[in-house]
């Protein structure tokens, strides 16, 4: 049996990158999929790629009224909800001396407030509709360690890490059949890298530079992370709750060796 047979999953950021890869993979594993994104056209393209048993929803994750409407549409279409994957996110550069307040506020709104609203309305909707499953929040390696030139991004993703633990405890202590897990990718080759690649002038050079910081020698693909999210959302991870799943190619395992054979 497919790992998500009979489940309904709500996935944000589904128009591109990790979100799109997750939506397609979940559908292949038997889930009914709600593909949500601020880009309605992008969400529709993902649904066209999936085919049947998928619904596209326009959603600004920082808007609570839009979350409420999206959840109503999802449950009207599929009857119940079991899984929420909070994948939508944005990144802006800037050290603590250089970060622009507008960029800081934007990252907190999308990365942290958007995830909080997904947890809030996800828990309420899974309870209300009699579902059972998991909320999976995509954080980052930058949600576990600091990085000097992306202070605001790290702060927003660090908030996601601790929020996920709090949600897990909330649900467990009340006996809800809902787990909550955070996923922490290394660099991923998605559209989020486009502005950086354009500034550098070469996407291949950008990926090569990033790969040198990952001990396994390559940048992750969206499918790499989607498979991690699938595990976290599936019953295979029934005892994985409040945990941080790190998909970083050993990037956080320790400093590079200074010894030579």
Could you walk me through the main structural features you see in this protein, from its secondary elements to its overall organization?
The longest helix is centred in the middle third of the chain and has 29 residues. Strand 1, helix 1 and strand 2 form a beta-alpha-beta unit. This protein starts with 7 loop residues before the first strand and ends in a 14-residue tail after the last strand. It has a 7-stranded parallel sheet with strand order 3-2-1-4-5-6-7, sandwiched between helices. The protein is built from 8 helices and 7 strands, in the order βαβαβαβαβαβαααβ. It has 2 domains: 203 residues, Rossmann fold (3-Layer(aba) Sandwich), CATH 3.40.50; 30 residues, no CATH class. The protein has 261 residues and is an alpha/beta fold. The chain is globular and about 55 Å long.
Please specify the SSE layout and strand pairing.
Blueprint: E1 8-12, H1 17-28, E2 32-37, H2 40-50, E3 54-58, H3 64-78, E4 83-86, H4 101-129, E5 133-138, H5 151-173, E6 178-185, H6 194-200, H7 203-211, H8 222-233, E7 244-247
Parallel strand pairs: 1-2, 1-4, 2-3, 4-5, 5-6, 6-7
Helix pairs in contact: 1-2, 1-8, 3-4, 4-5, 6-7
């Amino acid at each position: 049996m497919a790992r998500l047979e009979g489940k309904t999953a709500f996935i944000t950021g589904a128009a591109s990158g990790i979100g799109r890869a997750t939506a397609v993979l979940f559908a292949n594993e038997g889930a009914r999929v709600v593909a949500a994104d601020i880009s309605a056209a992008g969400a529709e393209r993902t649904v066209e790629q999936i085919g049947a048993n998928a619904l596209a929803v326009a959603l600004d994750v920082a808007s609570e009224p839009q979350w409420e409407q999206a959840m109503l549409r999802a449950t009207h279409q599929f009857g119940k909800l079991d899984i929420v994957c909070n994948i939508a996110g944005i990144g802006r550069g800037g050290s603590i001396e250089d970060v622009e307040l507008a960029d800081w506020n934007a990252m907190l709104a999308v990365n942290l407030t958007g995830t909080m609203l997904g947890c809030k309305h996800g828990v309420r909707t899974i309870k209300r509709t009699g579902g059972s499953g998991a909320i999976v929040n995509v954080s980052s390696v930058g949600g576990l360690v600091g990085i000097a030139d992306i202070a605001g991004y790290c702060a927003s993703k660090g908030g996601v890490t601790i929020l996920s633990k709090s949600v897990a405890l909330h649900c467990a202590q009340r006996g809800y059949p809902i787990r909550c897990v955070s996923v922490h990718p290394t660099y991923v080759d998605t559209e989020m890298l486009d502005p950086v690649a354009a500034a550098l002038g070469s996407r291949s050079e950008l990926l090569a530079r990033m790969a040198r910081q990952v001990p396994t020698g390559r940048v992750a693909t969206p499918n790499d992370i989607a498979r991690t999210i699938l595990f976290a959302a599936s019953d295979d991870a029934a005892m994985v709750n409040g945990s941080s799943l790190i998909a970083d190619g050993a990037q956080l395992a320790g400093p590079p060796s200074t010894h030579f054979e």
